[in-house]
User: Fold this.
Amino acid sequence: MKRFAIINANILTPNDKGSPCRGEEQGKLIHAKHMLIEDGIIKMLTNDINMLPDCEKMDLDGALVTPGLVDPHTHLVHGGSREHEIPLKLDGASYMEIHHAGGGINSTVLATREASDSELKEKALNDLKHMLSLGVTTVESKSGYGLNFDDEVKTLKVSNQLNKEQPIDIIHTFMGAHSIPQEFKHDPEGYINYICNDIMPYVRKQNLAEFCDVFCEEGVFDVDQSRRILNKAKEYGYRLKLHADEIVSIGGAELAAELNAVSADHLMAVSQKGIEDLADANVVAVLLPGTSFYLGKNYAPAREMIDKEVPIALATDFNPGSCPSDNFQFIMNLGYLYLKMRPEEILTACTLNSAYSLDRGHDRGSLSINKKADFIIWNSDNLEYLMYRYGKNHVNQVWKDGKKVYGVK
Ligand code: IZC
Ligand code: ZN
Assistant:
């Protein structure tokens, strides 16, 4: 048995009571000085050093320790990049205008279809290395740039291989309903039938993805189409997620609640009823302030959602179009500055609530007894400093399943 303890640290963690933290609970953390780890699992949190058994001890001299970050919304595996959109944007074109003119997601679909498995893998691996250095120990990864059987399966296989070949745990989501591909431009119903009948059952059967997500947005998939796709996904055994009310308020949040989705993501344009429905159904709201930042749009009403008892998670939304950054620490800064969340609420949003939004609250997301020893040792003795001093990586070491996987010293 491998047993060791970290001692004299400022350990801060959300308190897992078996469901996502909401309302006032979102901002309540537990504090301890010492943590015992056995075979990659947390066995004790204590302020009394005499409680620890005889074992190897790492003295952290007051450093902040938190759970590893869980990024629950990314479009990790994709070909190419979209810096060629910059002049269009400077001339005033919006994200949706570029999309409807055949650019945007469609240009990434072309680049992804053209890329080989190993090209996609190498590119995503580079991004994963960067994420790990920033403290991410679990990440969600969506398909949605293949938009046909072979290329959706190709990207999901790459994502599954990457899960085995580097330290971050990757949770996979099928998102064939990300956009209508050019071949089906005049037959959206034909595309919906194709993904529902041909791709979705195969992906689930091969266990290539456990979640299904839809881009429910004006001009992409409407509420009725999204409902049909997600109901079909439920039949195949997927858990549900939804890109909801990102740009226009069309009832995405209401649909996520109606279908008992695990999460509703974006919510920059969520309605009052949408907020109430999410709270009633205990759906985790995954907010993506990096997208508001990059698109120059408004931010989701996080304070109002916390007041109305909607559990909040944060994510990067890392993708080549609306958030070309995988920097989760910058998302924490935006959470404080623009979502007006308190540092304690932000930590819960990036660890325990994000783990729950991936159905992983039972084994990670907090430093609780019998959970995975996924944790970060920070170059700071307090949590507030991470939100305040932006643009710098504050990670000193990242530990995954009780093993050091990244370290500055
Ligand atoms: O590639 O533009 N919003 N999907 C929905 C995206 C952004 C990703 C992209
Ligand atoms: Zn997204």
